[in-house]
Each structure stands twice: as C-alpha cells, then as structure tokens.
C-alpha cells in the first residue's frame, strides 16, 4: 500500500508548483484498487496537484468522502467532470442537495451507513457520530473513515476525526 497526500493545508514535499489549500485529500494505491480519500476544497488545486504528483484521474477506481464539509468534498465535482466512471462512497447523512449534485456527475454512487467492504481488504467504518463546537453551539457531524487490513495490522485513515480517534479506532 502506498499513500500520497495530494491536498493539505501545508506543503511539505518540495515539488515546484504544488499548492496548499484548505482541506485534505490522499491517494491510496493498494494491490487491487486506487482510492482517493476526500477531495479538498478547491477542485483546480486538487487536479493540479494530482498532475504534479503523477496521478491521472482516470487511474482512480473509487472515491471515499469522509464527511460533507467543503474542505473534504469541495473538489469532487471537478474530479467527476473528468471521470464519470468513478465509484463514489459518501455517508448517508449528506444533504439531499449534495447527493443530487453528485448523482448528476457519476454513474456509480453508494451511500454508506454502517461498516462496509468497498474492495478486498478495504472497508469504511460507516457513519460515526461526532460533533464540532462552533462558538457555544455543538453541531452534530457524521463522518466515515477508511480501514485497510494489511499483513502488519490495520491502517486507519481519517478525515477530521470529529468523532474522536478513540471512537474511530474502537469501531475498526
């Protein structure tokens, strides 16, 4: 398994032209599939960084979106405009409007609620309840993480981990 950070708030790889942006995205290559986890906020930055890192959008087999915050799914539409054949896995808690927009752009779309196998040795935790404190108000957020079963044990990749790392690890 190889994990490449494609999009993040800071750039740590010295590649000319690589851009930082609000959000997160990583490209995971397994023996069976190429998976993009989250898409960052800006689709143009996502596509530009992918090109600089040698990642062709046509080589992605499936996308898993952790949760509906724009810094994790904002680049999805731009990517789907380049490759309509991507399988997209989102939490069922996404808004009806966002689901409608995704369905316009892809042929294969899955809503995930519980633990789900998405390909050999790769699972999503399904929705895990979390929250975010905004001012004095606590907002409920449902988020999914990825679980990879490897010879050395489990590898867990999270988005923001609004539900907390302990809760995510216990669900894996």
UniProtKB/TrEMBL annotation:
One term of GO molecular function: transferase activity
Gene3D superfamilies in alphabetical order: Ribonuclease Z/Hydroxyacylglutathione hydrolase-like (3.60.15.10)
Domain Metallo-beta-lactamase: 25-101
PANTHER family recorded: METALLO-BETA-LACTAMASE SUPERFAMILY PROTEIN, METALLO-BETA-LACTAMASE SUPERFAMILY PROTEIN (AFU_ORTHOLOGUE AFUA_3G07630)
Protein name: Metallo-beta-lactamase domain-containing protein
Natural source organism: marine sediment metagenome
